[in-house]
Amino acid sequence: MTISSEFQRCAWCAEIVPRADGPGRPRRFCKRSHRQRHYEARRLAAAQGIAADEVLLTRQQFDEWRDRRYQLEAALEDAQQDLGDAPALREYTEAFQLVYEAARRTASFRLEPRALGSE
What we know:
Elements: E1 7-9, E2 16-18, H1 32-48, H2 59-82, H3 89-107
């Protein structure tokens, strides 16, 4: 799926928000509830002394992201080694498939935003 300049991502969940035609500001959220959650999270973060550019992750979320990033790095290294000495089309295809699968797993990773204090 190609994302054109006609789309932007929801400021809360990062889903695609289609650009609305007509007057007014562009939409920043895919749902009204996401706008409300974003507002609540900003207020709670400010009350806790968390800056607007800081992000809180659970240890599990951080570990999962780090693992997927490592898998992608390893796939890239493997592909680079496999394509060392005048590779044939088969080696290119295998290297591409390896990197593609690692990139697909990494791209499917989603961090579910939560307001501070929510469970």
